Amino acid sequence: MTQTSRRQYESLADAAERTGLSIRTLRRRIAMGELTAYRAGPRVIRLDPEDVDRLMVQVPNFR
């Protein structure tokens, strides 16, 4: 029996809490096309956590 992996999604509030970003920042990134959002109805927006994680980039050391 093979097991298929289901994509996991999170709400804007969950993504904001997990990353320390604001919901407003996430919405701005969606509007700018930097973050893909998925609709699950007229008012429900979900994000792929991996897409949100890709927004976070390492800052080089300052010296």
What does this molecule look like?
- The protein has 63 residues and is of the alpha+beta class.
- It has a domain at 10-53.
- The chain contains three helices and three strands, in the order βααββα.
- It has helices spanning 12-19, 23-31, 49-53; strands at residues 10-11, 37-39, 45-47.
- The chain has a three-stranded antiparallel beta sheet with strand order 1-3-2.
- The protein starts with 9 loop residues before the first strand and ends in a 10-residue tail after the last helix.
Labels describing this entry:
63 residues, alpha+beta, 3-stranded antiparallel β-sheet, SinI_DNA-bd, DNA-bd_dom_put_sf
**Largest sheet: spatial strand order:** 1-3-2
Low-confidence stretches: none
Radius of gyration: 14 Å
Structural class by helix and strand composition: alpha+beta
Individual helix count? 3
Mean pLDDT: 92
What is the string of SSEs from the N terminus onward?
EHHEEH
What is the overall shape?
Answer: globular
The total of beta strands comes to: 3
- Strand percentage lies at 5-15%
Please report the distance between the alpha carbons of the first and last residues. Answer: 55 Å
Share in helix? 25-40%
User: Assembly type of the shown chains?
Assistant: single chain
Largest sheet: 3 strands, antiparallel
Keywords: DNA-binding
InterPro entries: DNA-bd_dom_put_sf, SinI_DNA-bd
Protein name: DNA-binding protein
GO molecular function: DNA binding
